[in-house]
Amino acid sequence: xxxxxxxxxxxxxxxxxxxxxxxxxxxxxxxxxxxxxxxxxxxxxxxxxxxxxxxxxxxxxxxxxxxxxxxxxxxxxxxxxxxxxxxxxxxxxxxxxxxxxxxxxxxxxxxxxxxxxxxxxxxxxxxxxxxxxxxxxxxxxxxxxxxxxxxxxxxxxx
Length: 158
Fold this sequence. Notes:
Number of domains: 1
Radius of gyration: 19 Å
Number of strands: 4
CATH architecture: Orthogonal Bundle
CATH class: Mainly Alpha
CATH topology: 434 Repressor (Amino-terminal Domain)
Strand order of the largest sheet: 1-2
Number of helices: 7
Shape: elongated
Distance between the termini: 60 Å
Strand content: 5-15%
């Protein structure tokens, strides 16, 4: 084993900054991956920034490689793009990366939905991204609120 099992070596750039106690710093080349996933998903930088509750310029810095998102942001981005953290950190560009999960079940109606997120409107993508970024408890509350709203007559939905 070389210590990199499970990781795509092309996604990792190794940089050595002198001999400071033998510390080897790894710099993940995530910026291109974030841009690729965002574009394939049909999001704008502003939409992703809004979901993450950060400035658009901060997200832009992630994509140009000026700054590196922290782990919590990376985990949220993986949720938004509906991929694992490992997939986010790899440079594999499979078509599954931007899907809504293939033929997953629609959360409200239970029907199969094989559409892709890039087929949604901007507002719909923002809603899906925000939903994916929520905790499981928050998702359940949102779904219950939607169910309650849909149970009302159309003229009473506000």
